[in-house]
């Protein structure tokens, strides 16, 4: 009996880095499920690549639930790779920008990760797309100790992300030690999430690998035309996360090498 090729799920994949990740996974021999919020654009991208499409809005609990139900029905064999790529980078800085950015870039990742965890096969890979822009030294000295990766729990991390939004809304985020960047703060949370998940899944017999990756500043609709890297290089940096040894304590990488944050 011929073994099935590994099955990969990619979020936010109708264009840019997500689309290129699907292309590179396909060319590696994976079966690929391309997901996108916009059905028409997602279906068009999936047709062009010759991969499967499922609608997914990572900010919508019901959408995530529908995806999981479809995966259980269509792919009972389970997932081998999940690339949490969906994200936003909005202009300006105010409470609404902070709320939308954190909800998509941090809670969107958390929603999809928690939803697909039961579907992951032994040795599966969870690759979370983060950014080197999200540096912990952006945080004030009163906040940094609260991001202690040896003790932090997911519920506490999520509370910190909500507190950032609340502090921006009240106009006191600088006094509380937060930077004036919604994108950077959301990515601090996303990178921390990969470390906390790794610690919390340490006892899981499936030996699931969780890693956060930085694709670099890429020339995409989100990154803009002045990015330092092309889409293929950025996607390759994301997929280099599949090669990170599970025993490696550091869980944030760029181009397959540990990255500072």
Q: Topology, pairings included?
A:
Blueprint: E1 7-10, H1 16-27, E2 31-36, H2 39-49, E3 52-55, H3 61-74, E4 79-84, H4 95-116, E5 120-129, H5 154-170, H6 173-176, H7 182-200, E6 209-213, H8 231-239, E7 252-254, E8 257-258
Parallel strand pairs: 1-2, 1-4, 2-3, 4-5, 5-6, 6-7
Antiparallel strand pairs: 7-8
Pfam families: adh_short (PF00106)
Family: Belongs to the short-chain dehydrogenases/reductases (SDR) family.
Keywords: NADP, Oxidoreductase
What is the CATH architecture annotation? 3-Layer(aba) Sandwich
The arrangement of helices and strands along the chain is EHEHEHEHEHHHEHEE
CATH class: Alpha Beta
Strand pairing plus helix content: what structural class? alpha/beta
CATH topology: Rossmann fold
> What gap, in angstroms, lies between the N and C termini?
45 Å
Structural account:
This is SDR family NAD(P)-dependent oxidoreductase. Keywords: NADP, Oxidoreductase. It comes from Nannocystis pusilla. Belongs to the short-chain dehydrogenases/reductases (SDR) family. The protein has a single domain, classed as NAD(P)-binding Rossmann-like Domain (Rossmann fold, 3-Layer(aba) Sandwich), CATH 3.40.50. With 261 residues, it is α/β, with parallel strands linked by helices. Helix content is 41%, strand content 15%. It has an 8-stranded mixed beta sheet, with helices on both faces. It is globular. It has 8 helices and 8 strands. α2 (39-49) links the parallel β2 (31-36) and β3.
